[in-house]
Inverse folding.
């Protein structure tokens, strides 16, 4: 498989595995962000690994892809996780205070904000490991 295809395969594999890790078991979790394993991390890890295998770890392309991967995984576990935690706090505040808008019958927000957006460190690491394993399988057995 090409660089793009193995990366996409890693992403979809991670998304598929989320169905079994997020409870209750629900097929719609395939289309959600967050959760175990991180599909973002699997995607960039497989890309980085394949680039390293194909062009060498001393290549400029490997350096660029590695920096890109570090940014993506940091964002998945840092910034996006913080957004999810803030959504949890806001949802709890609104439920607790029962805040209403100026119109008596309408709430400020119609539904809860999405809380499962980012990843815990173990979810990111599991995505990285999945991506690396799939890249090696692709490189050594499928090419």
């Amino acid at each position: 498989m090409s660089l793009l295809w193995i990366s996409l395969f890693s992403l979809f594999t991670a998304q598929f595995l989320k169905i079994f890790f997020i409870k209750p078991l629900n097929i719609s979790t395939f289309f959600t962000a967050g959760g175990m394993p991180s599909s973002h991390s699997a995607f960039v890890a497989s890309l980085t690994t394949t680039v390293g295998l194909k062009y060498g770890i001393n290549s400029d392309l490997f350096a660029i892809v590695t920096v890109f991967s570090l940014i993506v995984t940091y964002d998945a576990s840092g910034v996006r996780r913080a957004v999810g935690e803030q959504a949890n706090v806001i949802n709890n505040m609104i439920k607790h205070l029962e805040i209403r808008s100026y119109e008596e019958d309408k709430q400020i927000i119609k539904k809860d904000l999405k809380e499962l957006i980012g990843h815990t460190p173990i979810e990111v690491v599991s995505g990285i490991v999945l991506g690396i394993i799939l890249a090696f399988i692709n490189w050594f057995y499928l090419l």
The chain has a mean pLDDT of 82.
